[in-house]
Here is the input.
Amino acid sequence: MLKLIQLELRKYRITGYAIGAFIAMACIFGLICGISFDPSSAEDLPDYETLFSTIDLLARGTFIVFAAVLLSRFIIEEYRTKSITVLFTYPINRKKLMIAKLFIVFSFTFISIVLTDLVVSILMLVVNLNHEFISAALTKDVVVRQALSFLMNAVAASFMSLIPLYFGMRKYSTAATVVASILIIFIVCSNTNGFSLNSIVAIPITLSWIGAIVAYLSFRNIERKDVNP
Amino acid sequence: MTYVLQTHRLSKTFKGKESVSEVSMRVKKGKSTVSLDLTERARPRL
Amino acid sequence: MKMLTNLIKPTSGEIELFGEKLTPTSYSMLGRMGSIIEYPIFYDKLTARANLELHCEYMGYYNKKAIDEALDLVQLRGIDGKPVKDFSLGMKQRLGIARAIATKPELLILDEPINGLDPVGIREIRQLLRILSQEYGISILISSHLLAEIEQLADTIGVINHGRLIQEVSLEQVRVTNAEYIEFHTNDCVKAAYVLSHHLNISNIRVIGNRTIRIYDLSTPLPQVNKVLILNDVAVESIHQKNSSLEEYFLGLLNGGGQSA
Here is the structure.
């Protein structure tokens, strides 16, 4: 399996995407800084909780869309260009081939989100030390709670990010995949007056289950299905 | 003479039409076998 | 063709490869086959060499030189560093063949392999396939609709029409059935036969009716046959060389004139 993952990464230059992810991270940091430094919007971030959840929200949103792009390249494009037919004539279990691809998308998303959460948060804390946007004390409680929340949200988001695969595979369309992912972020990453749908725990949980199911469906019958011209 | 490939009454139906009907063919080891399709194609390739 | 590599599942019937039944999970068998189905497809952004390297890795084949050998055989050695998207159709076809043979499979399945090749390319591939079959002992299954290709390449021919196999016959047999012959008319067949056998050593003849003789032994050219017959007082009323073409044979099959193999 490891080998398969390696081969997939060779096929599609992953460094490009990694760089993109870092740029996104920098942008998010920049955005948060911007909000913090601008007096008119500074009150949007009154305490640590809001700060962290905003970071999380931005991270999740960005990388769910990112995931859709990866899904298009690693899976949908292979079907669209029929290069999947070549792949399937190899003496390798098709399920494993598919799982390798899904794993790459999932891990990339998860790692990106967690990294962004951590890095931007830490950077903001440093900035805060100098500029004191948030005057409250940072308690261990808050940190632990937040870390857990980051992790759980990241896992949920990573599963959710697979949902667009279902839509993209209907017509082998990249556009459909990305649009689907944008719809998803509207659901879980919108924050109106401090309330986001993501805080109704049932919603992210349901969506991640759906994501997992979509992933499962993608390789369930893959050995028996015809690959059409 | 061993056979590297054999099909027994192989059939395939695509969207209601039977595109392969009960084909039983053999390919011998080390030899070339050519399948010659005399059917006119519905849509020409290339 | 696609059913042989598990890309499409049969509605009914079985496929047996290398002595074992092909099932949706028969993965190891796939490693013993090389194939081109319809157009060869590659990862266009990667180079030809990278594509072949990936192929070998996926197939579990680790001979480093194999790629060079394959590229040599299809005459693509110099340009393996170019990305495949810059390749012409003919080059892609050749690369597809290189990929199919790189791992020295036991069975090669080719769907119209000379599609898109120029005449030089066609001849090269033809020679290549012959070498592969004869020297390397690779079994080859080609699907084609070009008779010229068949004549050059086939040991056995399976004739299919509307999805049905009408006949499975060896090229030898087709040639025999279709043999070329010299046919002449004379009023004295006995004498003619005698002359042919004694003066020209030709005995592979068939007498048809009492006025026609067909000579299947073509070692003696027609003018010579004519001359010898006449010099020996055989009245030749007409003489010609009949060449039955493969085309006639196969098209004849279409009309239901199926002779049993």
Notes: Residues 117 and 175 of chain A are 28 Å apart (CA to CA). Chain A has a mean pLDDT of 84. Chain A touches chain C at residues 3, 7, 10-11, 81-83, 85-93, 223-224, 226-229 (CB under 8 Å). The longest helix of chain A spans residues 94-131.
